[in-house]
Amino acid sequence: QPHLVESGGDSVQAGGTLRLSCTGSGFISNRFPMAWFRQASGKEREAVAAIYAAGTAYYAGSVEGRFTASRDLAKNTMYLQMNSLKPEDTAMYYCAAEKTGGAWDSARSWHFWGQGTQVTVSS
Hints:
- This protein has strands spanning 3-7, 11-13, 18-25, 34-39, 46-51, 57-59, 67-72, 77-82, 91-99, 110-113, 117-122.
- By secondary structure, the chain is mainly β.
- The protein starts with a strand and ends with a strand.
């Protein structure tokens, strides 16, 4: 059974740094794109970043320049390095895999999802 597990979420002060990890297993291919989405309380799930096997990454404008996505293909793991965190970054962060078509920043383009890891940034 395909499975994605996120880790690394925590509570930090504004300006702090976190690194999130997402590991795929059970038929999750390391040759296909993966993505990070987030969902704050009362808001829609929004795209954060996506990264392809070759290393090409895409970012939402709200995080570009502060967040960096990367992959370790041998470990089938995707990372999100988050620097200069802001209170508005507070959300549950989800990883996604197995893009089924459509834009990378559309949640319905992705077939498999992890359970999420909470990031809380305080002023």
